[in-house]
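Kindly draft a polypeptide, keeping tokens residue-aligned:

***
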Amino acid sequence: MLEFIRKYAQGFIAWVIFGMLILAFGLWGIQSYFSPTAANDVAKVNDEQITTTDLATATELYRARLRAMFGKNYNPEMFSEKMVQAQVLKSLIDQSVLTQAARDAGFRITDDQLGAEIKGSKQFQTGGKFNEKQYQMLLRNQGMSAARFERNVRRGMLIDQLNNGVSRTAFVTDRELKALVQLKDQKRDLGYVMVPAKRFMEKVKVSDAEIKKRYDENSDRFKTPAQVSVDYLDLSVDDLAKDVKPTDEQLHQYYQDHLAEFGTEEMRHASHILVAVPNDADAKAVAKAKAKAEDILKKVKAGQDFAELAKKYSDDPGSAKQGGDLGFFTKGDMAPAFSKAVFALKPGQVSGIVRTSFGFHIIKLLGVKAGKTKTFAQVKDQLANEYRHDKAEKRFYDMSEKLENLTYEHPNTLQDAAKALGLKIHSTGLFTRGDAKGVEIASSEKVRKAAFGGDVLNNDYNSLPINLTQDRVVVLRKKTYEAPAVAPLKDVSDEIRKQIQRDKAGEKAQALAQQLVKSLEGGADPQKLAKDHDLKWRRPGFVARDDNKVNLTLLQDVFKQPKPQKGKPVIGQSELAQGNYGVFALYGVEPGAADTKKPEQKQLEQAQASQAGQMEYLMMLKALRHQAKIKVNEKNL
């Protein structure tokens, strides 16, 4: 792990591991042990490669996000593998193009900036402080090496710098804002009547012949999906760990070997004021920066508030807003000269001018936290768990390789691998391509995809090893298969009857709506017309686009209409949900009033500028893609 991850305590990257749509952050998983093409590239952007591992792991992250987004409604068949893969690859290419452009433009992320971002992530903190052990554990659980994670964070920060440099420079003119407000806050004078389909439901009669005809013409809609059950071998670190029984002697030795993990160094809490100057600056620039630092130091010694001076003068963007507060850190966390000065101070003392590669610092020590080491007794249970996990993990990788070889060499049975490795053959109930149906391992899309794949389903071969997590792998083979079948008419006749009833009722509602439109266009009185058909004409008057008292679909259709001529309303109809219809008359249009002094319009100006900035950023990305040499290796997709 890079040494700089211990520096500073500010940041925003909590989303990097768990969050939303970081497609370029590929993880290293157990598949790298099994996939012979893991080192191959799927695309090349100028001189930078995108590997099959990058694509596979980013695709899995994307699908995980879709599952979280849709919850129980998620159906993998909604998103074909080809479509998802294409979307993810496009995103990876965009990330590569943007990263290269940021570097070419001179953007840089220093080790200290990167360390501050990582250390500021709440996922890696305990009690508000960075916890290195938790950092390593979370990365291990996600199948990531620290070096790969840090590289991806750096890339994300580079792209963010480039984005800010483009998108935050956009602005909106007063003329554009006025036109936007007039359109956005426009109101329309409206009258309308609703024609509900349910008033016709009881009058609709559906014959058995109609049901049979609908059934015959749409039999594919009433098919039950194909189902499969599988036998499988399940190899996991957790199961292997249960067989590891460490002795006290082994645990004592493990404790000594990992003593540093159970101790804490002395920590110091400090604030600083930085006057930045590049390490390679000329003598004039250095002298100017030093003079500024000395002037600030005089203000500190004169009794002025250190935190307020830091907010006003410090060039450190990560700590200035916090009054220069750097939080607690150990001696090795900071640059040598900085650490030496801090650890020579007593609480409340202020240093002299301290020079590092970042510039000149003035440091104030706020507090000291003594280091201590936990005893063996205090961590014995933790030691036992970690010892079992470490031993099991080593066995797991060895057994994983043997599992792959044995199930490949004996593709028509799981018995040989089960016997050689001491594993039990498990069996599942039936599940479909899109529904696990309560089968635990089938909750993984990779398992369902393999179970319905050609080798397993059609050739009766064992599957390739499937890593469910970093520490768990399964190999499966088909047990039973039930082909798709059309459900009997008697099982779906009630459903079909209701469908036909809804369709016919909707048709009658549509016919009445069309009749009303024709009458209104002919000059009929709307209130009398509605009453004649046992309906109610509503006249809300001028309404805004977001008026929640009017059906949203009808309102959207009203705002699509041209401005009516004086004395001649625009008449139209709107198709609503559930076969319902609305008929409306548009009498007039009133533009929104532009007033830049209103807070909400100021917010609109800012939002529009932000949107314009993002559009410029996307246009830049499009141009960069056009200029880049992008080659996709189709054979590896």
Notes: The first helix runs from residue 15 to 18.
